[in-house]
Design a protein that fits this description.
The chain is an alpha/beta fold and 525 residues long. It contains 19 helices and 21 strands. Helix 3 packs parallel to helix 4, helix 5 runs parallel beside helix 7 and helix 9 crosses helix 12.
Length: 525
């Protein structure tokens, strides 16, 4: 085996740089046809764009990639010249595409033409183009093997989640997380902002949420205070940063459960009145928002109003998972609510809770999504479901003509181990790169019409045992690349061996962008 690997490495060094990367794009395009010849990129290359700030930004992205490789000063301009340059890169908006995210790349030995019907399609075309460029160059030129690409995503929701509550991550890392999502054409960042163990978003009407709720006295008995939250200005900054990379940020505000950090600040919103402290251990905690108390709903309306002012996302995540009913069963207010409304049990009380919140969110022109427990007791009229306890929640939602995002723990939980030994501490489970790649978001139980309600899939990074940014990157990568292909590429074109071959380039690509990642040792250059 060692001799074989050595031979392959020697052979690869003999290949032209462009030939090594021609078919390395992840996620795999719908169609990629290699053409005769190659185009030489140099300081004389021109980048022509259409007028407009968005087009200038996209053109500058291409220019920056070229300049970083050959130390040139190529720039993008909407000013055309009579003389046709030796090499030309054109970005243009055209009609005739099926979606705003579809794009085409047409190459000749003189021209690279990127086209789409909108900016996000061109952005994805650029991401593919960047992967077709050599990672390192020598001298003042490099070449790209001519290739024509026609591409569009399979699913509209291509997501990654980040829990910043169990362990907090600085704004700089959140942006780096968004960067790598954009590189691989993921478009939805699910930001988990509230939990039992920490409230991480500033709410101006309720300052105690960050004054008290963002600080826990210790973590699993270590005796060390832990703190952190994002100001509203920082939130706005991240949302705008993501927008420029065509990523929608979906905030999650947990309810009715996972609320102890909030209850530590405002104990009157609980069933017992407290007192409480911000959670210091992992797991599910019995104290939740009181469903029989109207003040609970006034509080949540106020919180969600500020959240919706910060996040333009049409969808707001309201949690809904792992809500114990212990306190509700013993709460006079909750039991009165059940009797007055004629509800069957506490599960229907949770459904009432979610529906009441949904009605408010809908009144603001937004929609809710929640973990699959929101199905219990009856699904809110317009709610979407995020299916995490397997695929059953997504199946039930789709059959009821509700939209669903598939995120089963079996394949999409990146807090699981990636190998059987030698790994940093994780919560448990085993989900390696190959297992993620094998996932199919549309369950076999759905017919063609029902399958239309599957919006896509996402992976989740819960951080109970992930304390550092380096560890978070390691758990994210390279599994996120497998997910990107699952949600972008046609099911019929997915091939594990082909994917693993393309990953050899991607490991070097990630290294160039300064990401920490797990990869087979012999595949890291």
């Amino acid at each position: 085996m060692k001799t074989k690997i050595t031979f392959l490495l020697f052979f690869s060094l003999l290949m032209p740089i462009s030939a090594q990367v021609t078919n390395s794009v992840v996620p795999k395009p719908v169609s990629a046809e290699v053409q005769n010849g190659s185009i030489v990129i140099s300081s004389e290359t021109k980048i022509w764009i259409e007028l407009g700030e968005e087009m200038q930004t996209l053109g500058d992205l291409v220019a920056s990639a070229i300049n970083s490789r050959i130390k040139a000063k190529v720039f993008a301009t909407a000013k055309m010249t009579k003389d046709i340059p030796k090499s030309l890169i054109k970005l243009k908006i055209e009609s005739g595409f099926s979606t705003s995210e579809a794009y085409k790349i047409i190459m000749t030995p003189n021209t690279i033409s990127l086209s789409a019907m909108s900016g996000n399609g061109l952005f994805y075309a650029i991401q593919s183009l960047l992967q077709l460029m050599p990672i390192e160059t020598e001298g003042k030129t490099f070449s790209i093997q001519c290739i024509n690409i026609t591409d569009e995503p399979r699913f509209a929701w291509r997501g990654m989640h980040l829990d910043v509550c169990r362990h907090f991550f600085p704004i700089e890392f959140v942006k780096k997380y968004i960067d790598v999502m954009a590189m691989y054409k993921l478009n939805t960042f699910h930001w988990h902002l509230t939990e039992d163990q920490g409230w991480r978003i500033e709410i101006k009407k309720y300052p105690k949420l960050t004054q008290i709720g963002s600080i826990r006295k210790e973590t699993m008995g270590d005796g060390k205070p832990y703190r952190g939250f994002y100001t509203q200005e920082q939130i706005k900054d991240v949302v705008e940063y993501a927008r420029r990379k065509y990523i929608n940020v979906v905030p999650e505000i947990e309810m009715p459960g996972h609320a102890q950090a909030a209850l530590a600040c405002y104990p009157e919103l609980s069933c017992t009145g407290g007192p409480f402290e911000v959670g210091t251990v992992w797991g599910v905690i019995n104290d939740v928002f009181c469903a029989g108390n109207d003040r609970t709903f006034e509080f949540l309306k106020d919180v969600l109003t500020e959240v919706m002012d910060l996040f333009p996302s049409q969808i707001i995540h309201i949690g809904g998972d792992e809500c114990p009913k212990t306190r509700w069963k013993a709460c006079e207010k909750c039991q009165t609510r059940i009797k007055v409304l004629g509800l069957k049990d506490e599960h229907e009380l949770q459904s009432y809770f979610i529906q009441r919140v949904e009605k408010f969110v809908n009144s603001k022109g937004r929609k809710i999504i929640g973990w699959d427990e929101i199905l219990e007791g009856g699904l809110a009229p317009n709610a979407a479901v995020m299916s995490w306890r397997g695929v059953e929640g997504g199946i039930a939602a789709a059959k009821a003509k509700h939209y669903a995002v598939m995120s089963p723990g079996t394949h999409c939980y990146f807090d699981h181990y990636q190998a059987q030994s030698g790994e940093p501490k994780a919560i448990g489970g085993f989900t390696n790169l190959e297992k993620v790649y094998s996932y199919e978001p549309i369950p076999e139980a759905l017919n063609e019409e029902e399958a239309k309600y599957i919006m896509g899939a996402q992976a989740n990074l819960w951080t109970e045992y992930i304390k550092t940014t380096e560890h978070a990157e390691y758990m994210l990568l390279p599994r996120m690349l497998a997910l990107s292909e699952v949600v972008w590429s046609p099911k019929s074109s997915r091939n594990l061996n082909d994917f693993l071959e393309r990953m050899k380039f991607q490991y070097s690509y990630l290294k160039k962008h300064n990401y920490n990642f797990r990869a087979p040792r012999d595949e890291i250059k």
